[in-house]
Amino acid sequence: MNIRTLEPRDPNFEARVRDSFARQPMMRLLGAELTRVLPGLTEIILPFRGDLTQQHGYLHAAAVAAIADSACGYAALTLMEPGQEVLSVEFKVNLIAPAVGERFVALGRVLRSGRTLTVCAADVHAEQSGSGKLIAAMQATMIASTFPSHRTGFVAS
Amino acid sequence: MNIRTLEPRDPNFEARVRDSFARQPMMRLLGAELTRVLPGLTEIILPFRGDLTQQHGYLHAAAVAAIADSACGYAALTLMEPGQEVLSVEFKVNLIAPAVGERFVALGRVLRSGRTLTVCAADVHAEQSGSGKLIAAMQATMIASTFPSHRTGFVAS
Amino acid sequence: MNIRTLEPRDPNFEARVRDSFARQPMMRLLGAELTRVLPGLTEIILPFRGDLTQQHGYLHAAAVAAIADSACGYAALTLMEPGQEVLSVEFKVNLIAPAVGERFVALGRVLRSGRTLTVCAADVHAEQSGSGKLIAAMQATMIASTFPSHRTGFVAS
Amino acid sequence: MNIRTLEPRDPNFEARVRDSFARQPMMRLLGAELTRVLPGLTEIILPFRGDLTQQHGYLHAAAVAAIADSACGYAALTLMEPGQEVLSVEFKVNLIAPAVGERFVALGRVLRSGRTLTVCAADVHAEQSGSGKLIAAMQATMIASTFPSHRTGFVAS
To answer: Which of these, D102, D33, D43, D49, lies nearest to D68 by C-alpha position?
Structure first.
């Protein structure tokens, strides 16, 4: 899919995405920043911090997954209808190399944007002394929901 | 596999797992506790906290994934050789219901323990007023490594 | 979730599932049989055949995935509304041990049945001389659709 | 990663990959052809056939997964040492659009080639009347093994 030709359904998509990101306490706790917001694509940057590490001093896999999942979710949201919110249905991440670096850059992109479901992918690069290295790849499914009805989106009957 | 019959290769497995968990700054940041450590099975509990939420006030998917991944990894480590460490190769999580609750309980178990790779699964339940609800399921691959050689485990040539 | 208490929305669920399975040419090509159909649970059996193998003579991962995916999909369908069909959104399979055996048994079960999405898991065991061994585990997302509208389910408007 | 600069460890990689593919009865059963074999990249083409479909007449998800998994596995094998074989550890596939077309093209590529594990991704496009459409995306982990020792690769000692 040529995501550059995608027309957002909501002309106000960037403000909506940035507003949603700003209301995520978990992103603040991690210190993640939403940098780029384009139709079908977002970038999230996480500076290294000692309290985000695992037992060997690498960035914890959960922090890697956190920014990749958010980059996927917000890439999906850029293409959703006004008034819709985004929730993660599932994601899978391959941790490709040790997460060693000064900062970590997650780039999320939409593979397919549907009325209900959006399929996304994200790469995470570790940056050190100006050079980058791929450390993780994610494939994820996102769902559009209208709060608060999504509370029961998965509930039987 | 009947995990109750699994013989740990390291009689000191519980202390080794608890020590490794204690050296994870990310788990401290989240406030996660390692409660049960049995051969091929671990339990991690995460009390709800407002700074771990996403934009709707639910526990963030990244926090859900964090405890599920750690429960898988430490379940794998209970069955590894003395001196080995565990790293996540990949994990996939389905977010089954909104993460609403007072605390979240991840139960990780080993499906298959090999010399190099271990396949694990984890369930996460949200507990509220004494009742529990399944909110997430994970399937993960872990790798045994001997620090620091695992730094280059994925490096070509 | 206690799937034994699940009430099918369609009293005719078993016939509907068996009829759908019978209309899958791919299952016939592989020689797979749908054996058990219960609310939220199905079993598919695949006898070993030389033309289903990979280069080492094991059952091919694609054949393992085929019966696991179908067991998940039909488990989901047992709980869907009359008139709905099921499509796979995504699945992830861990190939836990070499697929060596006389026949392969996939057991699919519903973890959560929602109006739109159903989350399922499946195990595949290889049976040889009366004993079974876990060879694969799957986690999958299924979607309910009303043919032919699902043709455009993923299409951006 | 710029896969064009990858140096195969085995100058004879193409013949080794083509020979392994030719020894896969399952690929013959499906009618799949291995078309391109480059360092870190392979292409597999599957012509549509009525006996490869599911209940709506689309190509079955298992056939889609079969060619994506094989494209990943053989992409991994192009970069492995002489004498090594490849086995799938796990794969996850998102089925992005209905698999309707005259033929299906899976392109597998290596994201990271390690001594033991290789991380790969594959896209599958459906081709109809000369135009192509993305219908599936896979992320997979492959393992290098030396037959027959890999038979016990996952077995606990």
So the answer is: D43
- Listed in sequence order, the residues at least 6 apart from A141 whose beta carbon sits closer than 8 Å to its beta carbon are A88, A89, A90, A91, A117, A118, A119, A120, C89, C90, C141, D94
What is the pTM assigned to this prediction?
0.93
Which pLDDT tens digit goes with each residue over B59-104? 999 999 999 999 999 999 999 999 999 999 999 999 999 999 999 9
Omega of the bond prior to A25 within 30 degrees of 0, cis? no
pLDDT digits (tens, 9 = 90+) for D10-68: 999 999 999 999 999 999 999 999 999 999 999 999 999 999 999 889 999 999 999 99
CB count in 10 Å sphere of residue A11: 10
**ipTM of the complex as predicted:** 0.90
Classified as helix, coil or strand, D15 is: helix
Cβ atoms of B34 and B21 closer than 8 Å = yes
Task: Flag if C26 and D60 touch (Cβ within 8 Å).
Answer: yes
Question: Which residues from chain D sit within 8 angstroms of residue B112, using beta carbons?
Answer: 154, 156
List chain D residues with CB under 8 Å of A112. Answer: 96-97, 134
Please give the single-letter amino acid code of residue A87. Answer: L
Which subunits sit against C, judged by 3+ Cβ pairs under 8 A?
A, B, D
Give the residue on A whose Cα is nearest the Cα of B65: A62
Contacts of residue B157, Cβ cutoff 8 Å, sequence gap at least 6: D7, D9
Of the candidates B75, B77, B72, B82, the residue with the CA atom closest to the CA atom of residue B122: B72
Tell me whether residues C113 and A156 touch, CB distance under 8 A: yes
Of A89, A155, A156, the CB nearest to C141: A89
